[in-house]
Specification:
By secondary structure, the chain is mainly alpha-helical. It has helices at about 5-30, 40-65, 70-95, 100-125, 130-150, 160-185. Helix 2 runs parallel beside helix 6 (about 160-185) and helix 5 (about 130-150) runs antiparallel to helix 6. It is globular and about 50 Å long.
Length: about 200
């Protein structure tokens, strides 16, 4: 698979997952289920799947980041990926144990946020990637400035707030697609030569 194809698929996966999160967490906020409730396992499984798709988008950032992405961008990608893997691990643990592992979930949003902010700053170095940079920064800052503070306390996460994060992931996916379409070369096998 070419880098362009991977980036396009990752952008599409991220956009779809962002939309799923936007809709899914809105529904979850309205009709919340808890461990042991009917439907909890399914809702948690769906969330784990969309977080895997978001992880794919995070992993695509270096392929669309350009030559100026550098060490800062790669470090941000690694930190954000660790945050997403932590969240996915928490969801798997919830499926197995039937209880929510709060420390894992509590660590995931700050790690993801810090990583996306670092990647966004690295993307700002290239003026051709402004939309992608702003989308990465907004997604990261939202995690740090909105999700983390609203998730602290006995009530736990506000799922309307988390649904809003889905809208930013959707924009990040669109930014990945846009960067892939604009900048990454088409492989020789994908080029179509018109007959003379």
């Amino acid at each position: 698979m070419s880098g362009r194809t991977f980036a396009l698929l990752a952008g599409a996966a991220t956009s779809c997952a962002g939309l799923l999160q936007l809709v899914g967490d809105t529904v979850y906020a309205i009709d919340r289920v808890y461990p042991g409730d009917p439907g909890f396992a399914f809702a948690n499984l769906v969330a784990a799947v969309w977080h895997v798709l978001l992880l794919i988008g995070v992993l695509a950032l270096p392929s669309v980041g350009g030559e100026r992405f550098g060490r800062l961008g790669r470090a941000g990608t690694i930190v954000a990926a660790i945050g997403m893997v932590t969240l996915i691990s928490a969801e798997i643990a919830t499926q197995v144990a039937g209880a929510i592992p709060v420390p894992l979930i509590a660590a995931s949003a700050p790690l993801t946020g810090i990583g996306l902010v670092l990647a966004g700053v690295a993307l700002l170095r290239d003026p051709r990637r402004r939309f992608l940079a702003v989308a990465a920064l907004a997604t990261g800052v939202y995690a740090l400035a909105v999700i983390v503070p609203t998730s602290v306390g006995p009530g736990g996460a506000n799922y309307f707030v988390i649904a809003g994060w889905g809208a930013l992931w959707l924009l990040l996916g669109i930014g990945i697609i846009g960067s892939a379409l604009r900048d990454l070369p088409v492989t020789a096998s994908a080029r179509r030569v018109s007959p003379a």
